[in-house]
Amino acid sequence: MKTRRKEAVQSLLITALLLALPLSTRAWEPGAAQRNAAIQSGSLDAYVANLGKWIDQKVLADTRQITKKSIGALLSDPEFMGAVI
Hints:
The protein is mainly α and about 80 residues long. It contains five helices and no strands.
């Protein structure tokens, strides 16, 4: 009996936590607004950390798979170039 009650309480807690999460999460993306906000705040730490994570998602993790073609695609992507320049 105590085991079922404990399981029920755990299930309710988990459900409540899941419902507390936002329904949609947007991934961070670099842009002029984020860059300007970082400059205005006087601290670029968070912006640079997020930019690094974003670049990691764009570049192939396995360096053996990086080719001239894949680098060329990144360098011709205006969003990527706008973020790194």
